[in-house]
Each structure stands twice: as structure tokens, then as C-alpha cells.
Amino acid sequence: MTTALPERDEVLNAIRAAAQSLGRPPSRAEFKSSSGMTEYQVLKHFPSWREAVRAAGLEPHSTNVPIDPEVLLEDWGEFVRRVRRIPTRDQYRRDGTYSPGVFEKRFGPWSAVPPKFREFADGRPEWADVVALLPIENARAPFAAVSSPASTQPSADWVSTPSHRHGKLDNRPTYGNPIDFRGLRHEPVNEQGVVFLFGMVARELGYHVEAVQTGYPDCEAKRQVDAGKWQRVRIEFEFESRNFRDHGHHPDGCDVIVCWRHNWPECPASLEVVELSLVIRTLSASEE
């Protein structure tokens, strides 16, 4: 990787050299691979990648040309095969061939790509190694409502046993099990932790938060229900899903419960449940 900031002409010459080697204008990822320059080094001189390509005397690829869904999924699958994990949206944006936005226009939220790939790879044994890297939990509908019987088992891999337990000290805070998820060192132990964690992953789940309030319901958001289509939803945050019942909330005032642990088997069918302990388990598998 180039360590010094290159001059404007060096960037343009590198774009032209990549184009000559490829026989066409390079994509952002192809340019980074061939030149060793970073996106930051290019954008120090140009307002966008497309403007840099034009300044080099080339015409960038049109973003309006539709790309076959199979081409997108094949590229995503090759990326997973190469790095041996599911990429986050930012990882693919940095190092993938296409923009994540192209996938989202075609398939919906970024979290929908793994199950779409599983459908694509069904009956294609050449992709078996990639399918093996996909999460088993919620493979068909990741992060959707939990319809199976609620589990009361702790979600972390580390579970305290009697031989590990110690007496609780007074006047000291307590923490959840260690998770080290994107700077959050421990599992949530209350509703406030659930709110914080949901804010970290809302975009990947296809939600845009409009407002958070102290009254019921806690949150108003819009979520992507199809490519280019969004709907308003009302969200109530709870540490455990059964707290919704214990707090006396009426189901008619809410659409989605976001919780750390789903432990309410009798939850009304009209309420979707997003169980964050399962969500971050899947997302953690795709990161360092």
C-alpha cells in the first residue's frame, strides 16, 4: 500500500495504467488492487471516484446498467470464499466489486444477501464450501420474528457454573457476559443496553430510526420491506420479551419487540420479535 499521499497526476496515471491493463475503465476495487492506492488517497484530489475516472480521460461505467442478480451473488460468494467469512456492508464496500447499494436495490437490506445466496446456491455443489460458511440460525429469514419456542438458555458461549461463581460485592456494578461486539464489551443487562445495541445494528437490519421517546411505544422507525420500499413501524424495547407483558403494554400499540432475550412463548402472533442475542451472533461471525 502506498504510504505517502500521491500527487494528483500520479493518481490519474495509475487510473490510466489500470485501464490499459484491463482494456476498460477500472472499478474502484480493481484500481485499489492494481495500484496499491487507497480510496482516501484518490478522494483527497477528487470529489468522487467517477470524477477521478473522468479526469483521467475515461468514461466510468454507467450505474444505470442493470446487473444480473446471479452475477452479483456469484461475486458475493467469491468474496466469502476468499475471506472465509460473511462480509459486513462496509467490508464489501471497501473490497468488493460492486456497491452494496446495488445489492440492496436488488435484494433488500444487506442482511438479506446470505439467505438469497443460499437460495441461489441450492442444487449447485460448486458453492458448497461457501454455503457451509453461512449462518444456520435464521438462514431463511435472518433477524425476523422468532416463531420457534423461546429459549431460556444464556446466549453466550461462556456460561457460569457453580464452581466459577463468587460472592457479589456491595456497591459495585455488575456486567453481562463478555461479547466484545464493536466496542460493546459485555452483553446488555437492562433495557438501556438493548436500545444502545439496536442503534448499532439498526441499519443492517433494514431499519431507519425516526424517533425515540419515553412513552409507549419507545421508538418509531421505517424499515425496508422490499427493494426501494419502506414502511413505518412502532418498536418497543425490552430486556426480555416477556417484560412487554409484565409492563402491561397493549399489543395493538406496537409492531415489533426488540429485546436481548426472547422468553415469551405466548407472545401474540401480531408482534414480531427481534432477539438481539441471535442477531449479533450472526453478525459477529462475519467480522474479525
Sketch the major β-sheet: 5 strands, mixed
Query: What is the radius of gyration computed over CA atoms, rounded to a whole number of angstroms?
Result: 23 Å
Amino-to-carboxy terminus distance: 21 Å
In the predicted model, the low-confidence regions spanning at least 5 consecutive residues are 137-162
Strand fraction equals 5-15%
Number of strands: 7
Along the chain, the helix and strand elements come as HHHHHHHHHEEHEEEHEEH
Kindly name the structural category: alpha/beta
Descriptive notes:
The protein contains twelve helices and seven strands. With 288 residues, it is of the alpha/beta class. It starts with 7 loop residues before the first helix and ends with a helix. It has three domains: 48 residues; 63 residues; 105 residues, no CATH class. Helix 5 crosses helix 8. The protein is elongated and about 65 Å long. It has a five-stranded mixed beta sheet. Strands 1-2 form a two-stranded antiparallel sheet. About 9% of the residues have low confidence.
Distinctive features:
288 residues; 3 domains; two-stranded antiparallel sheet; 35% helix; 15% strand
Task: Write a concise synopsis of the structure shown.
The chain is an alpha/beta fold. The protein has twelve helices and seven strands.
Secondary structure blueprint with pairings:
Blueprint: H1 8-22, H2 28-35, H3 39-43, H4 49-55, H5 69-83, H6 89-95, H7 100-107, H8 113-121, H9 128-131, E1 178-181, E2 184-186, H10 191-201, E3 207-212, E4 219-226, E5 229-240, H11 243-246, E6 256-261, E7 272-275, H12 276-284
Parallel strand pairs: 5-6, 6-7
Antiparallel strand pairs: 1-2, 3-4, 4-5
Helix pairs in contact: 5-8
